[in-house]
Amino acid sequence: MNKNLDIATAATIIFITLVQTGFAAHISVVPSHQTALKGKNFSVNISIDPEGSEVFGAQYELHFNNSLLNATAQDKGPFFGSGSDSAVLKNEINNTMGWLKYGETRTATPGITEPGVLATITFHAIDDIDGLSELKFTVVKLSDPNVNPIPTNISNGSVEITDSQSGIAIFDTGAPDSPYPSIMGVHNGTIIPDQEIEVNRIYTYACPGTGGHTEYARIWGNGVNAHANWSGYTGNWHNLTFNTTFTLEPGKEYNYTIRTGSYPQVIHHPGEYNATGGKIACNEFIDANGKKYTGWIPAIKLWWEEE
Question: What is the pLDDT of residues 18-36, one digit of tens each?
Answer without folding.
Answer: 333 346 899 999 888 888 8
